Amino acid sequence: MADLPGNDAPYRLIDDVRFGEDVIVAPFTNLYGCAIGDETRIGPFVEIQRGATIGRRCKVQSHTFVCDGVTIEDEVFVGHNVVFINDKQPRATTDDGELQTAEDWELVPTIVERRASIGSGAIVLGGVRIGAGALVGAGAVVTRDVEPGTTVVGSPARAIARR
Ligand SMILES: CC(C)(COP(=O)(O)OP(=O)(O)OC[C@H]1O[C@@H](n2cnc3c(N)ncnc32)[C@H](O)[C@@H]1OP(=O)(O)O)[C@@H](O)C(=O)NCCC(=O)NCCS
What we know:
The chain is mainly β. 0% of the residues lie in helices and 33% in strands. It contains no helices and 21 strands.
């Protein structure tokens, strides 16, 4: 593992990230406290938070947000502007009106299994598993587990085909 990606580019914020070999990171990215596996490509305007893990030979396209608690296995495609969610009951403040801290909410983890693909604009609610080789259609809202090899579309996402 290395502290820097395999390429140089301007305007990147990279803090405490573990990179595998030959990771490519585009400009205008914000990556912190995460791990990114060998040969993965991260597009521009992507944010990957502390606690997220991205596997080997993945493609994460521009404008995607990967939050804490998300595990993306190897060879996964994540389209443009995909949003992962890890807090199902978000609140800015506690009952006392104080700003919430990490102790005041429950993180719900998500797993995207090997060779799955997530279409552009999809929203992935926390606490789901997207099975190996599954395909999430563009704009889908994933609220439940997706079986391996299944194509899902819509809001809430429903299966339309098996691959
Ligand atoms: C879901 C998807 C794989 C289906 O492709 P396909 O197998 O070629 O299916 P079709 O285009 O024949 O559509 C089948 C049906 O699903 C519907 N459909 C297709 N994609 C849909 C989507 N994203 N959301 C909702 N419905 C969708 C079609 O309208 C069609 O409905 P109908 O039978 O009532 O007419 C594809 O449309 C898709 O969304 N791919 C993701 C693309 C993407 O985001 N790429 C990333 C970066 S370029």
